[in-house]
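> @MW can you paste both from yesterday?
MW: sure, first one:
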Amino acid sequence: MPRVREAQPNPYDARFAGLDRQGMARSYRQLARELHPDRNFDDSQTTERFQLMLEAYQRGVARF
């Protein structure tokens, strides 16, 4: 029987929790600049972190 990998909690969900729409947009822009793969081409995990941040932002925006 194959092992089921438990889903890891997204560390960026907490960053967007409790913010209004403007606060979320401001936080998203800041994180996008920091984590964008084009700016961090020497870091192999940048793309994964950027995707996690984007998913957390989309879940946060869906609340409105």
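MW: second:
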Amino acid sequence: MESVGSVWSPRRGPCAARPALDLPCRIDPITITLDGLRRYDQLDEFSRGFRERGREIHLDLRPLSTEVNDDHRRVDARVASVVSSVLLTSGGRGPLTVWLPDHDGLNAGIARGGLLFAMAQRDGPTRLFVGDVSRQDLLEDWKPNWNPNRAEFRQALSATGPGSPTGVGPIQADFLMLNNPHQSVPRERLAIEVSDNVAVPWVERVTRYAAPRATGAWVRNFSEAAGTVIRELLYNLSTHPFAPIARLPDLPKTGRKAYVELYSTRGGVNRVHLVVADTGHGISRTLRPKLRQLRSELTGATSEALVRRLLEQTLPTYGHAEGFGYGRIIELAQRFGGSVDVLTIADDEMGGTIRARWSEGKVSTERLPTLECRGTVVHATLTIESADEKQDNQPELFACANQG
């Protein structure tokens, strides 16, 4: 595979010069090579490569394995989630061939970033290789819609070991993902299914893996707190991101993709991660009609200002306190020494993607002007203390007021 430049280039030359991968002959496929998924500025050229609609794309992630000392050092799940969004939206229809590194730890990080979900769920044809070996089988587990009422998912909640021998399936000892939970489950049933059958055992399973010495009471209280937020965010997922907006075309049904995941990481500090990602309208575009009805002066604010106000919890309330899902997840992060990262498409004339972060009571925002990432990704990180601290410092149950 020819790669001109450090990130991407159009391939030139006859079809005979291409690698023997049994792919259809097309002129000038675009080759994108990424040697890191740690910084957002690495993705500017990546996003640009996908703007040429219909072109065949070769995405080579094998350089990620160069000089790796720590399995997850070169993959940040928040950055990988942006790649996933691009694959599902602007890069969703053309033929795609992906080479993953032959490295289990890196591929687990890639899975946590939603990349395998995006490869399996995108509309266009996808070929997958690990190293130089074809591994289409790795995508099969990611194609079904893993919903809360799916029997296999409920069974996985009580399983004691990894759910897939590959190490990158949607069900692992330290990692569980719901694929498109807003589909196949009626909206009025989604929160009930999650509340009765999924949320608390889901968190308990992942938390026990990250903190095996934690007391049962601590884990149950922690899980009740996180479960409340999961129920809220899943209900919001079925209500807001894909809802019709006046004067805007409806999103195509085939493009309404979303995932919700929980996973844990262990190291110097053990953490539980909660991620909600969708390919919907984005935060600011969803907020503006509501602000317009309230005749708020914020209606004409920039996308960056609206996202900041959302995380600062200074937006006017609308209806039955809609938007409190973000307030609850921030409260949870504050209680458990965590952080909240948000990436969402901008809808103002400056364009690009808005990146925002809540940490230790402070909000920071920036605009990534050349990165086109449709929808929204919310990534909350919760810190799990040492076992001794867990026994003496029981977390309070999360307040579950009926606020929408």
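> thanks! The domain at 145-404 is CATH 3.30.565.10 (Heat Shock Protein 90).
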